Amino acid sequence: MRDRRLQSQHLGEEGHHAGFAGAAHAGVGADRFCTEYRICDRVLCGLCTGITSLVCPTYTTEYASKDIRGALGSGFQLFITIGILYAYLFGAVVESWRWLVLVCAAVGGVYLLLAIFIKESPTFLLSRGSEQSMQEPYILKPLAITLALMVFQQLAGVNAVIYNINLIFQASGTSISDDLSSIIVGIVQVIATAAGSLLIDRAGRKLLLCFSAFTMSVSIVSLGVFFYIKSSNESFAQEFLGWLPLTSLMIFISAFSIGYGPIPWVMMGELFYPNVKEAAGSMATTLNWTFVFIVTFVFAPLQDAIHDYGAYWLFGGLCAVNFLFCVLFVPETKGRTLQETMAHFGGPAA
């Protein structure tokens, strides 16, 4: 690692913020004017989003003091939800997707300008020239926990639920439009993620993860129960249980946003020495987005094979396994220095 084999090690965090903000901005800008290159633009924006997912949480946790590290680290997820809501709001009022892309490109332009003034973190500068083996047990244990958190974040089924927002709203018997239903869910995500940011340094990571996994399991199983009853007795479900799908949806989205939305990204920046953080973080980020693709790709065939309720029950079972994993294996990092955290895994004091 002495020569910064990974890109983030070679360029540094400052270079990544500026470079990838510019690339993302160029990608969405090209999307506005050159529709024949839309697929290439999506690939470029996806690449930049993935690398930003690695650099931003890492950079934030390296700069923040231990008493506010969780709140600042979860700001990454908070602004993701704000960005989603931003797209929902403008998507409801603009007439063309090209104008929506241009509106979103403006945010990338602001990101690029602000990234120019970002300085390298002291942790990054101090770690230059030092090496740490990825084979050490005190590296492998937190790596396994981080990878598992990333996998469980996606296996909770949050993307599958969001893709069915309109169906769930319709099942509840409301006449809310598709745009408004998306905006409502976006507002819930922002509020719940903000609440999680305020709680994370008080309640701790482990407690919020356990609460999030348990609540997601109960709520998504309840959602499956509604669709199961609806498949056999639709009139009964609509008349007496019309409140259940919408209630389950809001509880599920809130529980995810409070815990499993931000905390895996925060802990990714807390569990490793600086000189292995880029390699470990790259693996975790890649695995996370890989499972985003897998869950998205298999959800429709899964619905066809085991119905809506079967898919929701499967995600609920995975959330229950997730809850047990958090109780048994996830350490609490609230208020701990890096040395204290690594000592928990048997690492050296410095």
From TrEMBL:
<keyword id="KW-0762">Sugar transport</keyword>
<keyword id="KW-0472">Membrane</keyword>
<dbReference type="InterPro" id="IPR005828">
    <property type="entry name" value="MFS_sugar_transport-like"/>
</dbReference>
<protein>
    <submittedName>
        <fullName>Putative solute carrier family 2, facilitated glucose transporter member 8 isoform X2</fullName>
    </submittedName>
</protein>
<feature type="transmembrane region" description="Helical">
    <location>
        <begin position="311"/>
        <end position="330"/>
    </location>
</feature>
<feature type="transmembrane region" description="Helical">
    <location>
        <begin position="279"/>
        <end position="299"/>
    </location>
</feature>
<feature type="transmembrane region" description="Helical">
    <location>
        <begin position="97"/>
        <end position="118"/>
    </location>
</feature>
<feature type="transmembrane region" description="Helical">
    <location>
        <begin position="139"/>
        <end position="162"/>
    </location>
</feature>
<feature type="domain" description="Major facilitator superfamily (MFS) profile">
    <location>
        <begin position="1"/>
        <end position="334"/>
    </location>
</feature>
<dbReference type="GO" id="GO:0022857">
    <property type="term" value="F:transmembrane transporter activity"/>
</dbReference>
<feature type="transmembrane region" description="Helical">
    <location>
        <begin position="71"/>
        <end position="91"/>
    </location>
</feature>
<dbReference type="InterPro" id="IPR005829">
    <property type="entry name" value="Sugar_transporter_CS"/>
</dbReference>
<dbReference type="GO" id="GO:0016020">
    <property type="term" value="C:membrane"/>
</dbReference>
<dbReference type="Pfam" id="PF00083">
    <property type="entry name" value="Sugar_tr"/>
</dbReference>
<dbReference type="InterPro" id="IPR003663">
    <property type="entry name" value="Sugar/inositol_transpt"/>
</dbReference>
<dbReference type="InterPro" id="IPR050549">
    <property type="entry name" value="MFS_Trehalose_Transporter"/>
</dbReference>
<feature type="transmembrane region" description="Helical">
    <location>
        <begin position="182"/>
        <end position="200"/>
    </location>
</feature>
<keyword id="KW-1133">Transmembrane helix</keyword>
<feature type="transmembrane region" description="Helical">
    <location>
        <begin position="207"/>
        <end position="229"/>
    </location>
</feature>
<dbReference type="InterPro" id="IPR036259">
    <property type="entry name" value="MFS_trans_sf"/>
</dbReference>
<feature type="transmembrane region" description="Helical">
    <location>
        <begin position="241"/>
        <end position="267"/>
    </location>
</feature>
<keyword id="KW-0813">Transport</keyword>
<dbReference type="InterPro" id="IPR020846">
    <property type="entry name" value="MFS_dom"/>
</dbReference>
<keyword id="KW-0812">Transmembrane</keyword>
